[in-house]
Every structure is written in C-alpha cells, then in structure tokens.
Design brief:
homotrimer; alpha+beta; 7-stranded mixed β-barrel; 4-stranded mixed beta sheet
Chain lengths: ~240, ~240, ~240
Amino acid sequence: MKAVILGICKDAQVVDISHGIEKFDVRMGAFVLASTVPYFPKDMVYVAVVDPGVGTDRRPIVVETRRSLLVGPDNGLLMLAAEKESVKHVYEISNRAFMLPKVSKTFHGRDVFASVAAYLATGRVPSEVGPEINDYFIPRYAKPIVENDMLTGEVLHLDDFGNVITNISEKDLNRISAKEGVSLLVKLERKVLSLRYCSAYGEVDINELVAVIGGHGFLEIAVNQGNAARKLKAEAGMNVRIEKA
Amino acid sequence: MKAVILGICKDAQVVDISHGIEKFDVRMGAFVLASTVPYFPKDMVYVAVVDPGVGTDRRPIVVETRRSLLVGPDNGLLMLAAEKESVKHVYEISNRAFMLPKVSKTFHGRDVFASVAAYLATGRVPSEVGPEINDYFIPRYAKPIVENDMLTGEVLHLDDFGNVITNISEKDLNRISAKEGVSLLVKLERKVLSLRYCSAYGEVDINELVAVIGGHGFLEIAVNQGNAARKLKAEAGMNVRIEKA
Amino acid sequence: MKAVILGICKDAQVVDISHGIEKFDVRMGAFVLASTVPYFPKDMVYVAVVDPGVGTDRRPIVVETRRSLLVGPDNGLLMLAAEKESVKHVYEISNRAFMLPKVSKTFHGRDVFASVAAYLATGRVPSEVGPEINDYFIPRYAKPIVENDMLTGEVLHLDDFGNVITNISEKDLNRISAKEGVSLLVKLERKVLSLRYCSAYGEVDINELVAVIGGHGFLEIAVNQGNAARKLKAEAGMNVRIEKA
C-alpha cells in the first residue's frame, strides 16, 4: 500500500496508525481510528482497511467530513471517526482512473483504497471518485442514542488491562448533563451498576468499579487496579445504557 | 538501520516494507520483497536483511536491475524480486568507504547494508561499491523452469489462510499458454492434482481446490473457504510441476 | 503521538525506533534507546515512553546532552543513552504551553512528551519547558562504576538468543585496560567465570562461554552456538563485576 501511495503521490508523508488490529475486527479498527483522528491536523487523508467483505459486493467509499477525507470499505470502519467530525458527503468509489490498472479480487487495500487515497493527497477532489450516496452503512456503535435522558451505546473494545471501553464520549455525557463527580446508573446488558464518574481510576478504592473518560476519549468502565472485563464478563458489542443516578 | 541511513542521506524517505519475516526464513523474505517491489516507483534503493550467514564469508552484494537497486546478502533473498525486473549487474560490496567506520561481526544490516543503501540513495553509483561478480547465488525459487510445456517451480510460502503460494507467476503460465479458465495438471511433490485455473476462489464449490493468481502476483493452490496447506500437507520448498491438462 | 507531533511540527520526520519493548520494562527500553542513539546524526529530538509511573508524581523531563535532546519520564529510561553523550542540563517539564490543552491522566506520551518533543523540533529551546533540576533519577544501570581496576555493572537484557547483555561498554573496559584477547574474571552475582574477551562468538569452541562486544556496543556473555542465559540462570538486573584475570 505504501508503494502504491508513493508511486502516485511522491511527496506523500505516510504515517502508520496501527498494524495491530485483530483480523476482521471492524469494531476495534473503528475504535483505534476514532481515537487517533482527532489528534491529527485537518486536511489529512486517512486510509483504513479491515475488510472481511473484500471480494463481495460491499462498496468502497470516500467519506468527506468537515476536517478530513477517509477512504475504506463501507462496513462501518470509517464512521465512528467520521461522525466525530460531522459527515458532509459520502461517495462510492467507481471511477477506474483512481484505481490501479489491475484490481485483484483479494487486495483492495492496495489496488483501490491506497490508490484513491494517494490521488486525493495530490489534490484531486472526492466527488471525482464516483457518485454521492446516502445509504452508506452506519454501525450502531458509531452513534450513541439519547432518549429521555438515557444514553444508549455499546462496548467497543476490551483493552489489555481489562478496561471496558464504550462508544460514549464526554460530549455524549454532556447531553444528559452528567459531569465528573456525579453517580451514573449503568446497564451493561442485564447487569445494573451504580458507578462514580471520576477523572482517574485512583479516585475510588482498590478493586472498586469506576467510570472514567480514558486517554482515547471514550467512557470506560474500569476497576481500580483490577480487571473490569473479567469481573463483569463483558464482551465487545454488549449493550450499554447510561443515566444519571 | 534507519539512524545510519538518515545520518548518511538526510533527505532519504525510509519506508518499512516488513518486520514480520520469520527468523532466518530467507525464502519468505524473498517472497515478501518480490510481492512489493513491483508496486514501488522505479529508481528506488531497497535494503533487505534476512541473514543467517552473517559472520561467515557469505558476500554482501548490490543488485542493479532495470528499475531498481537492491542491497543485501548473497543468499538468494534479493533474487526473486530482481529477476522480475531483469538483472543488469551484481556487485560484491568491498569498498570500506561505503560502510560504517567500525563493522561489527553480527549486525551487517546496520554497518554494511544500510550504509551502502544510503550512499546509493545520495546518488553514488553501484559500480563504486566493489567488483562486478557473475557467480552470485540464484536460489531455485527465483527462476521457475519451462521445459516441454512443463513449468517447474516450488512452494514459496504458506499464508495464514492455508493458501499454498508458489513461485510461478502469471507471466510464467503464459509461457505454457495457460490462461484463466483452463484446467491445470499440478504435481505437488508426488501428489497429482487436476485444478481449475480461476480468477477467484469463489469460482469453485466450497471446500474444492482451485488455482488462482493471488494478490501478490504468484499462483496459489487454495481451497474455497478452506485450508489447502493442511489438506495437501504442503510445506515451503516443496517441488511444484505444472502443465496444461 | 505521531498525530500530535505532525500537528505541531508539520515538517517533522518521525522515525520509529521500536514498538517492541515489554510492558513496563524500563531497563529494556533504556537499552534499546542507548543502542540506537549513537547511530543517529546529532541535533535529533528523541521521545521515549516506558512509563509505569504515569498518573503518579514522577516528573516529566527533557535531557540536553552534547548531541541531542531526549524527552520522557524521569524514571531512568533516558539516562543510559544520555550518559553516553554527556549530560549538559536536565529540565523538569512544567510549562503548560508545551503540552496539549487537555492532559489526560493516562497518556502522557501523547499529551506531554510528544507535544514537548514536537515544539523542540520546531526550534524552541529546552530551558523554556521548565526549571533546570539536578536531582533527576540515575538508575544504577546507567553508570557502571570503576574502583580498584574492577568494573561494576549489571545485566541489562537477555536477548532472543540467550545472550546476557550487560551495561558495560568497550570504553568502560578500556578504563581497566582490558583489550580483546585478554581473559576476564567475571562475577555474575555469585557465579565466578573466567572468560576470554573475543571479537566474535566463533573464536571459542562450540558450547563454550565467551565475552564479546555485541552489535549494540555492550559487553555480552554468550555461549558459542548456545544459550548463555539458560546456562547461567541469568536475569536482567543481576550484578556484574569484571576485572582482568
């Protein structure tokens, strides 16, 4: 992919975000992308590939937000990051002039996505890649819902320390007027937890559960010096509902 | 190695191809290099190190092809990629002025290869590194053989999905006039297989064997949604003979 | 971290040294940094993070040496590399203008260290980051001691081949006038070993112990074609004393 990018856009500065996403784990890829994108300058072109559907008819897309362009498969991977920056347009990639002359059935990362991203990095405009579409896929985890002062989201990822990372951001919590210091009523699937919303793990006793905004910007359920995922038998994709206690 | 390169050629743009080659697996390194090099622009300098012979008298070489310069040990690592681009000259590195002042016995990647590659990137010509040689090592896997309409090659690599990747390219298959759609008689060591040469795994039934050109440009023996390596007890280095059925 | 660096210093050339340090292994991080820094040109800015103390009151520092600037936690990580280049000044980072607007409790790599390093790369001077300090932490492994012609150091790291890498450099050995070819009396904790100080493993018989300066510039205790760490039950942090035999 880097070879293709440099072949098309010689002056591109290619920055690796991560090569550590588990095979086919689109949700984890979305989480890592959304944790990183806010720290880059604007007007970047991102290319992300976690693509179990390569070879099927899932569409290749370019997402234009208020700050960035994101290139990848239409399987939700790009949308958690894109929603944070407000989506302006989504285009389906169909213009063969933006792809390598020969497109393999198995490696669209190289033959389609890297190539399109490189052309965009040279200054070509996203509307050239193909028609605008509105029926692109928005996964449930890309958009927490607020209804009657209750936030509904899901578990994005369990990290190496056993922290249960949700798709709920500080901004989402503001929408139900939950500020640090308050108690939250958290439903993780059928488990009901009463958690203090703190600024650091250490603000509760050792082995106690706590809710904090992690370094990635999302609310996590953690145990001070312990493993929350194990304690709660949490899994990625589980439903999370939050209201002020 | 990157430190050395930037110390000698401040404006070099260093691109990582892979740090994931198994220790001492020269054949796998050759495969990854040959899969990548065709996608880079021309006039690149490649440095590749999989070097079980460091400390012995295996020679350090520079290979000049029609498109690129490749720097590394004379153990076959460079030749699969180089043969694809037509080898023009091979030089044995002996000029101390192209190496670090102190050459360790264990880390020629840094003290010899990175240093030579960086000097070449500054525009120094390859004939300066040392004498041209003709007795460089060409591994069997770098050059499939055609004889009486039979192609002879070998298994390069078994990938994570169990696909059996050979050193036979589409161009090689053209030499025996085998086009997609035909049936191939494939001998993998002593196993005789009759395979359809298709453009995608999905063109045969689930669990059926198929021959396809993979995303890396080499013929692979695969099982649609299955594991060909396990089914065929294949191993890297096995002999492969192919003729039209 | 790369996002933050490029956001502050658009023209920075970011080079990855390693992402393979074991979690919380400060000594291994110090070893890898000290093995690499001497090969880079001067006037580089290094940022290194192995930071078990994040969230506690361990200080963030900038070390100015005769060749480089190093940014990271005050836990010893930077000092093995810094001592090799002679430390000129150490500053405690306290100026908020050099950090991200919002500093998390868990990811100082991004919010403090990458940000400070990027500002230094733009040309800002290190004395701006905060007050100079003299009570910074110098781990025992950063400074081997010479007393009565005896060198005292410790085991830095056991590599994948079972070589026992110490913190003793060739320059340290010169201080007790030990040159290649002499015999060394080495005490590894309570084990007393008589070792030949050679330029390569192969200069002793197979399975025999030997002392060599490795590719990283440190003395290692090795077994020719064998595993010294296993043979000697060595562990990182063990005491090493060396005198001429």
